[in-house]
């Protein structure tokens, strides 16, 4: 990654500002921010001087964003057909074709100065480790191999889902390239017929895809507000980092959001302002990506929230644990009865996504988990055959799901709460063992510069699981009703 204090970055930043000015952006005194190397690691967006609250920091013209509107007209389609790519696929294709060579600038005539200043690698992102592992052991460093081995099962599962999404987009993009061969002429690296199988090509597309996945902003540019094509890469804005605490900057609602009407042409400009507090000069500005658990932040973005014990105990921070692997194992050990109960939960939409939460207090299981455990303990563990009349056997549980009664029975409440305590104990002990393993395992022979930082991120994932499990167990023992 280029050092933000280097002459190379300064030249690229100046080129970006000149390009933005050509697009109509005010980049003189009206621009109250600048990128800067942040303490510890990474880059951030900092104030140039003292900035009062609710003050516009910059306005980014719609034409300077990379999105499905600004790119679509530059890519071929079949006659009378729409572009067969999603926004993620189209933006990642464009970045893939125009990634600059090491030490060089992007030759893209549309967004070259912006692409030139994007991150040069995503080595510390967990998806990078997975893709390298798939390419072959020779592509995976000892640091990456060690970290993959330490990940919690819930993180591994979420990472697998992200991996599937990545490969789906990669296949679609390369199908499009094969369909429209003329696109190959734009690429900064040679593309052969077996493009996706080439390690160098796969790594280049991974770089492009991760830029989209980690840096895009929700931007209402198509009719439906829930359409996944509502994303844009936004220069300057994308230097801002996330905080789970109070954010200090935010984008103003676009015209599309205010009027619920899509702007013609390239969409709406983006104006960012300070929040409800004044910000001193040379201070980093922070956004809030959303109320995501650390598991999601780690998998999607490659970092976790910095949280203290007091934050979780007080309820200021909402810790979360996903229990799918543990609960699935409970049902699988019940044999034919477990298979039947799984089918019941699937039919009712309650299979999977079982979580526990530390906030809002008191710490509690999710309703999905409560519902699944009530079913689990409706049928005695001694029962090895599916009831002859399932509807009668499950009527109290069905009535609970439908809101006709509060609980299945007093005995069932006691039983499923005991099962929940056992789950909490399993989570706590597993997390303790994993954290000890992280501490006791020697560092890799040649650790990467980010290895210790990422190792701490993984430790935090386990710490959160342990802390939430302890908090929920306390709620159960205290007789809290969920």
UniProtKB/TrEMBL annotation:
Task: Output the InterPro entries linked to this UniProt entry.
Answer: SET_dom_sf (IPR046341), SETD3_SETD6_MTase (IPR050600)
For this protein, what is any one GO molecular function term? protein-lysine N-methyltransferase activity
Lineage top rank: taxon = Eukaryota
Q: Which UniProt keywords apply?
A: Methyltransferase, S-adenosyl-L-methionine, Transferase
Instruction: Answer yes or no on keyword RNA-binding.
Output: no
BP-aspect Gene Ontology terms = methylation
Please give the name of this protein: SET domain-containing protein
